[in-house]
Structure formats: structure tokens, C-alpha cells
Amino acid sequence: MTRTRSSLAIHQNDHQARRRFVEWAQNEMAVVPDFHKRILFSDEAHFWLNGYVNKQNGRIWNEANPQVYIETPLHPEKLTVWCALWAGGIIGP
Known about the structure:
23% helix
């Protein structure tokens, strides 16, 4: 089953979704004792090589507003890094 990040968002008041998830996980652990060892967490991040920072992926804190002008080409070069964690260790990058 493939899900997007937006469908996985659980809001502070979304108690029913949290309860359904816990019940699902408990059922899986009853069937497969080492279920927790089979969970894989993964993510990816994109880094632009021209210095552009995607504000969705990271935050930069500064005391002053530098009024930076960022020139963006039509197709900037970027590097994508992917990594995953599971009970067996780290996969990637």
C-alpha cells in the first residue's frame, strides 16, 4: 500500500486514527511476533547545488532579515539523498 505524506498526517485531535493504528499494530504483532522488526522508515531530501534552500525541507534561523536575492535557473542541478532505518540497521544513503 502506497501513501503520500499528506494522507499520513495525524492531527492533534485525531484520536480515532491513532486508536485504529494502535489496534492494527497490535493485531499484526499477535500474528507475527517480530512484526516490530519488519518496520522500515524511509525519507528523502533534495539539495540544490546552487545554494537554494527548499523551506519545506529545512529551516534557517537568523536574527536579521538579509533580503537575499536568489536566482533560480530553469532546471537547477540538485542532489537527492535517500535513507531508511529498520531493526537491522541503516539502508543507504
